[in-house]
């Protein structure tokens, strides 16, 4: 199946995106910011629609809106400002603007928005061109490298912000920088798995990793490996079964990984506690 | 004759109520708003917006799955939302992986919905209705059904109101006093699921979430007294729904835009009002 160019493009972009989602997702869960990721992914959809309405490249809208929202959320800060109700409201409102833009778009273009809506919401990983796939892979790898570069200070400022401040780590700036990385991953993954489904790549592999190990290095590595495996398996599955959409297969495998990880520790804990009792 | 807005408020209201579809829409919106204002008040207080949003998007697999299986759409909504509520409730409140569970439930549901959609070869225009609703197409029968569900939900909420508030505000003390905290967690999620499933059939997944989160948040900014804040939340939700529908009637743009914008504006006003009152 790798003889086809569209399959090679999908694997190239998919692997890098899954890797970035796994790495970033592990920290997103540790920092309890998954709802912010949810907001960013829904807003990505509005960004794409806005770009389509303005007649510019969809990627401009994706990146502009997600990074903009990440900056706003970082600006509201963690000092009780950006609690989950505020995040929920802001993104419900932005989605409302998306509805308006969709209406404007369908009156101006005569209903040509269904295709944009479909690929943005649910992704079109098998429709990526070679150049798009290469760019996506490059951006995703840069994000993964960015997280690797800030790994230790980010970990410390998440687990113990006070101590991190004492040690001279710029906790606030680091948090803002991380949210912007989340935004970049979100915008990039929207093209592959879609705005509605990319949250699964952020949440499920990372959740499984958090359940299986508490060690940060092993956790991040495991999360990245699980995400990449879900991506590879999903792509292969949907190639073998044509009626199965790629995004559904990828997210389905990621979710299955999370569910099996949830089952494993319980069994282990029971086995471990039995002899002691 | 197309509706035109004038300074004469009586004539504006008469134009609003001229058509049966608009009367139905206003009735449905009022019921939805009362429901969302009450259930959402607890959701915001319990910091469960993420779970609430996840339940509201379950409308999508519910609708597409029901179409594929050939069962009534409403049943699909209730099944999908209920299953998601149970799955989230099982993950345990406050654990580090609770968010991971919610996110996984949400995307697994959406991925399943997308699969159902492509298996059923349905057109995507139906998707927009699922996400953004079609409140102007509500029938009188639907309004009646909504009223029944609203009575059930509000009844359940009234029965559990005090222990739920106790468990929300001080979980540990409530547990020590014999309040079944874990059962309340799942119970509240199921009530939220029931409310969301009933309302998102009419308003779409997007609108119901805006009504669930913004009016309660605005109310909780303004007062910390539980009953006053709950009443304010319901009043705000009804106000937002009426204003949104009313303005949308005189405009060519969709209801969803107006309701979300007014809801957000209301919250901002509440924040500004509190700041002014403090100084």
Give a written overview of the molecule:
The complex is a heterodimer of chains A (277) and B (279). With 277 residues, chain A is mainly alpha-helical. The model of chain A has no long low-confidence stretch (mean pLDDT 86). Chain A is globular. The N and C termini of chain A lie far apart (53 Å). Chain A has twelve helices and no strands. Chain B is an all-alpha fold. Chain B has a single domain (12-278), classed as Orthogonal Bundle (ABC transporter involved in vitamin B12 uptake, BtuC), CATH 1.10.3470.10. Chain B contains twelve helices and no strands. Classes of the chains: A mainly alpha (277), B mainly alpha (279).
List keywords for this structure.
heterodimer; A: 277 residues; mainly alpha; ABC transporter involved in vitamin B12 uptake, BtuC; 83% helix; B: 279 residues; 12 helices; 82% helix; globular
Chains forming the largest contact: A-B, 58 and 52 residues
User: What's the CATH C level of the domain at 5-195 in chain A?
Assistant: Mainly Alpha
Reported by name, the CATH topology of the domain at 5-195 in chain A is: ABC transporter involved in vitamin B12 uptake, BtuC
Large-scale geometry of chain A? globular
CATH C-level category of chain B: Mainly Alpha
Count of alpha/pi helices of chain B: 12
Task: Point out poorly predicted stretches of chain B.
Answer: none
Rg calc of chain A = 19 Å
Radius of gyration of chain B (Å): 19 Å
Count the DSSP helices of chain A: 12
Overall helicity of chain B: over 70%
User: Largest sheet of chain A, if any?
Assistant: none
Total tally of structural domains of chain B: 1
Q: What's the multimeric state? A: heterodimer
CATH architecture descriptor name of chain B: Orthogonal Bundle
Which overall shape of chain B is indicated by the principal axes computed on the Cα atoms?
globular
Reading the helices and strands of chain A in chain order gives HHHHHHHHHHHH
Question: Mean pLDDT across all residues of chain A, rounded?
Answer: 86
For CATH, the homologous superfamily of the domain at 5-195 in chain A is named as ABC transporter involved in vitamin B12 uptake, BtuC
């Amino acid at each position: 199946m790798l003889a086809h160019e569209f399959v090679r493009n999908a694997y190239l972009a998919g692997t890098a995106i899954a890797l970035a989602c796994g790495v970033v997702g592990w920290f997103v869960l540790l920092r309890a910011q998954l709802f912010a990721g949810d907001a960013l992914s829904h807003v990505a959809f509005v960004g794409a629609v806005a770009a389509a309405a303005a007649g510019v490249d969809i990627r401009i809208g994706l990146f502009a809106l997600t990074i903009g929202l990440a900056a706003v959320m970082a600006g509201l800060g963690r000092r009780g400002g950006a609690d989950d109700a505020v995040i929920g409201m802001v993104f419900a409102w932005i989605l409302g603007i998306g509805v308006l833009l969709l209406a404007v778009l369908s009156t101006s273009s005569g209903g040509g928005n269904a295709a944009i809506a479909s690929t943005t919401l649910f992704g079109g990983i098998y429709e990526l061109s070679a150049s798009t796939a290469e760019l996506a892979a490059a951006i995703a790898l840069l994000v993964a490298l960015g997280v690797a570069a800030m790994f230790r200070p980010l970990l410390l400022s998440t687990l113990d912000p006070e101590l991190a401040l004492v040690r001279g780590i710029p906790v606030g700036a680091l948090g803002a920088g991380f949210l912007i990385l989340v935004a970049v991953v979100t915008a990039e993954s929207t093209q592959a798995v879609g705005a509605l489904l990319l949250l699964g790549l952020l949440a499920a592999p990372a959740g499984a990793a958090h359940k299986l190990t508490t060690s940060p290095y092993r956790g991040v590595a495991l999360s990245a490996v699980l995400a990449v495996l879900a991506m590879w398996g999903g792509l292969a599955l949907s190639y073998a079964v044509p009626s199965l959409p790629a995004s559904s297969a990828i997210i389905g495998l990621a979710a299955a990984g999370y569910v099996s990880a949830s089952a494993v520790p319980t069994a282990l804990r029971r086995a471990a506690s039995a002899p002691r009792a | 004759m197309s509706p035109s807005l004038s300074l004469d408020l009586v004539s504006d209201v008469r134009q609003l109520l001229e058509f049966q579809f608009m009367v139905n829409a206003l009735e449905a919106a009022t019921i939805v708003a009362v429901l969302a204002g009450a259930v959402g008040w607890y959701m915001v207080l319990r910091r469960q917006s993420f779970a609430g949003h996840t339940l509201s998007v379950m409308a999508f697999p519910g609708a597409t799955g029901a179409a594929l299986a050939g069962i009534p759409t409403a049943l699909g909504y209730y099944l999908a939302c209920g299953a998601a509520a149970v799955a989230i409730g099982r993950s345990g409140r406050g654990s580090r992986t609770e968010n991971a569970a919610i996110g996984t439930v949400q995307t697994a549901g959406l991925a399943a919905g997308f699969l159902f959609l492509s298996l059923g070869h349905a057109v995507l225009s139906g998707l927009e209705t699922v996400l953004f609703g079609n409140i102007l197409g509500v029938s009188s029968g639907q309004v009646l059904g909504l009223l029944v569900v609203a009575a059930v939900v509000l009844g359940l909420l009234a029965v559990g109101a005090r222990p739920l508030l106790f468990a929300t505000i001080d979980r540990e003390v409530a547990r020590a006093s014999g309040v079944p905290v874990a059962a309340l967690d799942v119970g509240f999620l199921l009530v939220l699921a029931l409310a969301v499933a009933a309302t998102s059939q009419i308003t779409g997944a997007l609108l119901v979430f805006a009504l669930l989160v913004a009016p309660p948040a605005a109310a909780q900014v303004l007062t910390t007294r539980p009953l006053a804040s709950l009443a304010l939340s319901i009043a705000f939700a009804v106000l937002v729904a009426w204003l949104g529908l009313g303005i949308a009637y005189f405009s060519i743009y969709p209801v969803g835009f107006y309701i979300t914008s007014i809801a957000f504006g209301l919250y901002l006003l509440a924040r500004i009002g509190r700041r002014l009152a403090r100084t």
